[in-house]
Design a protein that fits this description.
single chain, five-stranded antiparallel β-sheet, four-stranded parallel β-sheet, 6 helices, globular
Length: about 280
Amino acid sequence: MAYKALVAIKDANPDMPVMLGGTAGVDFNFIDAVLSEHNFGGLDIVSVHPYRQNNPETYLPSATCAEHVVKSHLGDNVPVVSGEWGYSTYWFGEPTNSEALHQQALYCLREMLFCLYTGRELAVWYDIINDATDNKQEANFGLLIKAGDGTLSPKPSYIALKTWWDLLGIQNATNPDCSYYAVATTATHVRCLLFKCPDTTLAAVWETRDGAAQTVDLRVKHQPAFYDMYGDPYAGVDCATDGVCTLTLHEDSGPVFIVVASPALRTGTCALLLCVALALLTLL
């Protein structure tokens, strides 16, 4: 059926993008079986739904396997995307308590940052609005809660995503005019993603081990501002030493945003020089 649909769509409009999937989970064996049945040349995207109750970074091994399978059948130009993926607060306890809401926010933000960090630019979050007001799993994936009168209120997950975009200074969601770079570190469990926008250079830095903490030194040329994932000043940083800020990352506190707004960083310099200017990092 998938093959017949692909042929019919491309016959009607060769330029129409066609996506295969998405699978429940990352079922690369199923994808392999489907792609082995026919020549799916012309397919544009393969979608998976990589739901999980643990941290988003655990998606990487299965994503890599799925990409290998797709590449073996279709070559290098057909990406595997997360066409639907989210976290229900139900998985983390009472869906409306602060701990569950914070855990959803932490994984939501890390899901998006992780996908960019690993070069997976398309990730579709599920869901925008809670489906209901009860305490069931399916009702609590949303970024927003809808009251009985139709009023929408943001959950911490919404606030975390909005904080990220606000700090980047993005005015146009369809054309954010920012570039980004994954910064390799020598700390195995620390991830750093660097964004360069017209008026701001921002780094998102986070620890991936459950419940872990790690202290790193940042050598700074321009005094940065540090924010937690909700946009509040981050308390776990000490810049008492001239030119050095000591940052303590806590996995359960979420990513830390480091912001530098300086004309010196808006001159089209390469990613490496941006990293040096931000003093990222003694981990480099």
